[in-house]
Amino acid sequence: MEIWVEFVGIPRLLAGVQEVTLSLPAGASYREVLRQLARRFPALDGQVIDADGAKLFPENKIALNGKRILTESELDLSPQDGDRLVILSVLAGG
Amino acid sequence: MYGYSGKILHIDLSTRKTWVEEKPESWYKLYIGGVSMATRLLWENIEVGCDPLSPGNPICIANGIFAGTPVPVGGKYGLASKSPLTGLVGDSLSGSWFSIALKRARWDGVVIHGASDKWITVFIDDDRVQFRDASKLLGLGTFATEEAIRAELGDDQVRSATIGPAGEKGVLFANVTNDGRQAGRTGHGAVWGSKKLKAVSVRGTHGVTVADPETLMQLSFQISETSQGPYTAKYRILGTSTNVLNMNKLGLLPTRNYQEGVFEGAELVSGEYLDAHYKVKKIACAQCPIACEQMSAVPDGPYKGAMTGVEYECLFANGPNLGIDDLRAVIKLIEICDQGGMDAMSGGVTVSWAMETFERGIFTKEDFKCAKYPEGFEPHFGNAEAAVTLMEMIRDREGIGDLLSKGTRRASQIVDAERGTETYKWAMNSKGLESPGYDARGLKTFSVGVAVGTRGGCHNRSAAYDPDIQGEVDRFSIDDSRGEIAASSEEYAAVYDTLPLCKFIRRCFTGKADRAGAWPTIAKLINATTGWNFGYDDVELIGIRAHTIKKAFNIREGWKRADDDLPYRWKHDPMTKGASAGHVVTDEELEYLKDLYYAAKGWTKEGLIPKAKLLELGMDDVAEEIGV
């Protein structure tokens, strides 16, 4: 299974790239996606991703195909082949 | 009293007289400061039905409870008048040194009545008030006016709230500026201009006395330290402009006058691009450890030398919303607004209305004649030079700029009446105030929040987009929970707007931004400042009363349920691209959401406030006037 991950805002600054493609075993969860990202982009670990718990720190979210933001409990679910995830820092105000 | 002087300064520009009003502690416990106290002062000092641009519309300034103390982000004040843009309450906030100077001058609030027959500034020098000739300041921009006043008085500690040329000329969305920050939205600058008041300057030389300095210092240090961590990183590093790509990904970035929610040039006008190419410095308000404002400058091209602070809302309005993908032009447009003293959101959204009206063939090149282009010009979306010229014409009320200076609601009404058109269908405002950078078609909870907003189309008074964006609810559908969420969100925001504290600090008390995470610490800050004994429920009541006094003002001015509405486009025109394509907020949905919202507030189906509800809040005189 292959998915795309795009970084926006602080996650992009820390990752140093705009987008990455990940290959995952079938049935892998979003938490596995986060673990892979933390390994590949160590600057994200501890700032955006809490790799031990395989979750995002509260300011950061995953947008699934632009439609909606995943809740923490949904991180146990699996992405579909071809899904596009955006890791962003949700911000209010301005 | 600790934290307060107990005194409100009244100034009459017509008679040049001043007087002092002393308020009891019980009054302060109800209205605290900021927008709540400012609106309460407005309630007490205006005649119902008053023309907003007449001498009878008072300027009401209310300081913050924490201004001049160590409490981080507490250097803010509220400003209220009847809005010339909406005809309803106009309440705004601004931060930085002006509020601290006012606190040190020992005034909790200032009410300015009447109108001067000549252009003047008012100089509040501790307990003395001078009326000073402002003829040499006319035409100066907002920042230049502040500097000129400091030079004239020979004191660089004098702080001024000023208007620019737009306020002098009566642009209905002109704002008031102090220390580089704006009390924006709703047209305060036009009210000041109608009184021939160019600036209010303050020199304060006293200390600020609080009840428990040790506790206040301890808490303030803790909050300040936390504010340098991950909870505010997004504000400190990229600022609010980071929202451009967030909104674009979610299909919510207003593009070409809200025709779409996805902008193909979003990367080029993103906070990330701004940071890499144009940011020169981060700026903080006084008393703020966060520093969110990204001061940006144009190094080359036709707008070389333009420089201003860039925030998401002014960026969306003057970038994607105009189809402009060149940040150099966006910085120039925002600079025109900031130095001219105009609301950059209303300015951008009004220009986008004009561009769409042109592209639909209702306006022609002839309509855009001006000194710079005697034959007129063609303001297509994406035409940066046309946008810059139009913004300058609005500031100066030149040519079609005179029409546009009235904002989208009035401008569309005038054009439709004269030409038999329906341009109101793309006039993006609620209650006359131009819409924010969150497209409500893809944010159903926010749709009711923005429709019921007491000052009109505003993202700052209702954060109901937050549960939509955070995924706590399905942002494309409605259910019975949304009225309660919208009401709760509004009251939450009103607590911050009343103290006032900048909302960007909200997660720094305990790590959680919700009431349980914030209210106990806020209560401790209030108690350490005043010596009161506030608890969680008292903090909650601050927001409820603040919102209630604003709503009560509107009811007294003739507000009706039908006024709680959305722009026609959000109800009828679905977007065709991106993640939010295909959605609108139907009239049926909106009316249902309003029912839910009024019920959650404990109001009648018509949105009026029961007398008993007002009495519960201790607002007895308000109950007498508008309670049902």
Topology (SSEs and partners):
The complex is a heterodimer of chains A (94) and B (628).
Chain A: E1 2-7, H1 10-15, E2 19-23, H2 30-40, E3 49-50, E4 55-56, E5 60-64, E6 68-69, E7 84-89
Parallel strand pairs in A: 1-7
Antiparallel strand pairs in A: 1-2, 3-4, 5-6, 5-7
Chain B: E1 7-12, E2 17-22, H1 25-31, H2 34-45, E3 59-63, E4 76-82, E5 89-95, H3 97-104, E6 109-113, E7 120-125, E8 128-133, H4 142-153, E9 159-162, H5 165-169, E10 176-178, E11 181-183, H6 188-194, E12 197-203, H7 213-226, H8 233-237, H9 243-249, H10 271-277, E13 279-283, E14 293-297, E15 307-310, H11 312-318, H12 327-340, H13 344-359, H14 384-396, H15 400-404, H16 407-419, E16 429-430, E17 433-434, H17 444-452, H18 465-469, H19 482-498, H20 515-530, H21 536-556, H22 568-572, H23 587-601, H24 611-616, H25 620-626
Description:
The complex is a heterodimer of chains A (94) and B (628). Chain A is of the alpha+beta class and 94 residues long. In chain A, 18% of the residues lie in helices and 30% in strands. Chain A has a single domain, classed as Beta-grasp domain (Ubiquitin-like (UB roll), Roll). Chain A contains 2 helices and 7 strands. In chain A, strands 2-1-7-5-6 form a 5-stranded mixed sheet. In chain A, a hairpin with a 4-residue loop joins strand 3 (49-50) and strand 4 (55-56). The radius of gyration of chain A is 12 Å and the shape is globular. The model of chain A has no long low-confidence stretch (mean pLDDT 89). Chain B is of the alpha+beta class. Chain B folds into 3 domains: 7-203, Aldehyde Ferredoxin Oxidoreductase,  A, domain 1 (4-Layer Sandwich); 222-428, Aldehyde Ferredoxin Oxidoreductase Protein, subunit A, domain 2, CATH 1.10.569.10; 443-566 and 586-626, Aldehyde Ferredoxin Oxidoreductase Protein, subunit A, domain 3. Helix content of chain B is 40%, strand content 13%. Chains A and B meet through helix 1, strand 6 and strand 7 of A and helix 8, helix 9, helix 10 and helix 18 of B.
